[in-house]
Amino acid sequence: MKDLSVCVKRPLCLFCMSFIAGIILCCNAGLTLLLIFLIPCLFICIIFFSRLKNIICITLAALIFFTLGGVIFNNAQRKYYGAFNEVYDKPVTVEGYIAGEIEKKDNLIKFYLKTNKITYLKNEIKAAGKLLVSVSEENRAFDTNKIKYRTELSFSGSIENPKTMTNPGGFDYKRYLAAAGVSGTVYLKGGADLCLIGVKDGGWLHKLGFGIKNFVLRLVEQCLDEKQAGLLAGMLIGYKDGLDENAYNAFGKAGLTHIMVASGMNVAFIILPLLYIFKKIHIGNIASSIMAIAVLLLFVFVAGFSASVVRAVIMGILILLGKAVMRETDIYTSISAAAVVLLLINPYTLFDIGFQLSFSATLALVMFYPGIKAFIDRRPLPEIISDTLAATIAAQIGVVPITLYYFNNFSTISVLSNLLVVPVVQLITIIGFAMVFAGLASINLAVLIGCVNNTFLSFVLFVTEYTSKIPYASLKLPTPPVWMIILYYSAVLYFLKGRLYIKNFKYYRYLKYICITLAVIIIMVCNLLPKPLRITFLDVGQGDGAFIKTAHGRKLFIDGGGRAAGSKSGYDVGEAVVVPYILDQGTKKIDIVIATHGHSDHTEGLEAILKEIEVGRVILPDTDGKGFERIIEICGQKKISVAECKKGDIIRLDKDTVLDVLNPLSFEKDSLSQQSLNDSSLVLKLRYKNSKVLFQGDAEIPVEQRLLEQGSDLSADILKVGHHGSFSSTGEAFVKGSIFKYAVISVGRNNFGHPSPLVIDRLEERGTLPLRTDERGAVIAVSYGEGFSIKTMR
User: Fold this and answer.
1) pLDDT-derived band at 5, boundaries 50, 70, 90
2) Could you tell me if 316 and 274 are in contact, meaning their C-beta atoms sit under 8 angstroms apart?
3) pLDDT tens, 178-235?
4) Which segments within 670-764 are labelled E, that is strand?
5) 98 pLDDT exceeds 70?
6) H or E element, residue 214
7) Of 270, 417, 553, 617, which one has the fewest beta carbons inside 10 Å?
């Protein structure tokens, strides 16, 4: 029974973990399954702990928190995911008030709008929620001198339903916005009308916070150089727009991103001077704590409610409350309380990267810093170095799996850069606060203090830039699977924190054997179970991109998406979608990359693969090389072999999987290829046992007719439809002369009318199911050699 007494020491930690578990289970399995799962847990609790009153009470309370987490998440899902279901993508008139600061970025004016009324077809719809509104800077109706926080306005437009994750491991924009309480987006062009209604009362705390924030930003800009001002603004109040993207990338590579975020250190620098002053003027504990709490709450409004600031402020408030009642606050309980409060407000915060990084770093510091510090202190090192080294290593232990999971980046020089920078950061923050307070009295005094701080800030920027340029300062690594992250944290906890406690556990010997047995069984099952052929047709917008992993582990990428011809967009689909997807598959190597033809909407995304992923060889169609100049250049630089294929060639992937090349003919003999880049497309037929897939590239009707005349067997389980479903491909004769169960149409927003309704009708009339990536997201096809099972992301 003594072993179970550990459970009652910090019950709030257990309740917090139960609450989080309820959110995760409800998110992945739904509320019904969560409640079904709860019933056996109650029975187990009653059977095993019926004689232990303390344990059964805590266990029942944990189950209540578990259920509460699921119920609250379910309500939040309905609130944020379904707020505007009735009016998404319809022409509506919206009335509401601005519920945050107005920001200008990328030629757009952005703000949050709380809706009061939505009208559709002259009918008022009950749809209250928050919208993210983007207005073109060309819109003359938007006057920033008149339109501010709490301004009520109306406009006509269309509310868009934010995209959920459309590719495996991709960015879930809908969930990201839900963490900010947003349920829809609106884009208003230059000619859109905006009508001012008035100003809504209230919001004085926000207004005060915005006022202080803008004062700090103006003062920092006046007292410091541009880059130094941007860095200090992030360090003091968490303002993220002061530095450009290159500077952010440099901080990321150097492992110094954390210093640009307001967090616990800022809270400490606010509380400690205040408490010192209150003590000197003989203000009692309770009164001083209340006043300090009021200042901290105001700081939350100034810093914009970021997860790290809110967490630090809640912990600071708990410490102050403990001081007021003469009780020492347990740090683990404080962290748990902060997490529960944040998740009660909005359970989607759990999926916010800032929340995860903030809490993992804080927990790691609390748990591992003392042991690491004691180990380092065995060496004759100065205190400031050993302290910084211990804190950096402890924090890195906590956040490395999360940064790898989301960003695939591992900084190899973070310890060095932190050793150089962190001791200076504390000084910079103190001088920065001093500069702000001095600015209240005299701008000249603030400028003088700023000159001193400018030197230290320049040193930080210099170290960041220099260390980020060291070869292999940052490694691009595959995404670790969830089971590996769990294993990592379990091992860290065991070896750095809990080894002694677990060994003292009464049933440790049996637990050890059980774990070893389970590990052996899992490894054996994973290796003995047959592996399938898996093809993922990615959502790359208006382009093509397919990833193939054979049953024997060979990896192939066909096309990579990109910008349509003539597009001026700076969006790089390779960097944003294709490379992250490959890394998310747990690999940094592609055996074969194939470009079907030379149009940019098929080749541009491949450039990022060739630059950042290890590629075995590249296969192109037998043409004059038009459109492949950049690919050939990169292959030459990276010493990647390039081969050209034509009709009759066979690309052997493994002993069970081959690609038959059906088009083009040799370029000198192929009049179609010479006349049209689309008709020079590689048409490939993948064969795996009795499963077949036809990849058509952008080949059009003339190529289809030639293939039919040549008697080619075009029937397959899956057709990757040619030219994004254009009427110039997938002709009637081609559809009638072949048998397809599924037809994947890789398409995005476009002005070409893709896919053509005629093509959709032809396919459906033949009993073929069209699967559009713009509607369904990525299409995942899995085969064990007899047909395919299909799953779509949406």
Assistant:
1) very low
2) no
3) 998 999 999 988 767 788 888 888 888 888 888 888 898 899 999 999 899 989 988 8
4) 683-688, 691-695, 716-720, 740-745
5) yes
6) helix 204-223
7) 553
Segment 389-425, tens digit of pLDDT = 888 888 899 999 999 999 898 888 988 998 898 888 8
In contact, 573 and 604? CB cutoff 8 Å: yes
C-alpha distances out from residue 359 to 311, 312, 334, Å: 8, 10, 11
CA dihedral sign of residues 342, 348, 352, 356: positive
Q: Which two tokens stand for residue 644?
A: 């050209």
Contact in structure between 134 and 188 (CB atoms under 8 Å): yes
Does residue 662 surpass a pLDDT of 50? yes
8 A C-beta contact, residue 743 and residue 770: yes
511, amino acid identity:
L
d(CA 481, CA 401): 10
CB within 8 Å of 674: residues ≥ 6 apart: 667
Residue 293 Cα distances to 202, 288, 332, 338, 487, angstroms: 22, 9, 20, 15, 39
pLDDT in tens, 376-390: 888 888 888 888 888
- Identify which of 136, 132, 142 has the alpha carbon closest to the alpha carbon of residue 189: 136
Residues 707 and 716 sit within 8 Å (Cβ to Cβ): no
Q: Could you report the per-residue pLDDT of 708-742, keeping only the tens digit for each?
A: 999 988 999 999 999 999 999 999 999 998 899 99
User: Contact, 296 vs 311, CB < 8 A?
Assistant: no
- Tell me which amino acid residue 485 is: I
* Helix%, strand%, coil% for the chain, nearest 5: 55, 20, 30
Q: Are 302 and 237 in contact (CB under 8 A)?
A: yes
Model confidence at 562: pLDDT above 50? yes
613 φ, ψ (degrees, to nearest 5): -115, 145
Selection from 128, 37, 43, 142 nearest residue 87 by Cα: 128
Is the model's pLDDT at 48 over the cut of 80?
A: no
8 A C-beta contact, residue 358 and residue 335:
no
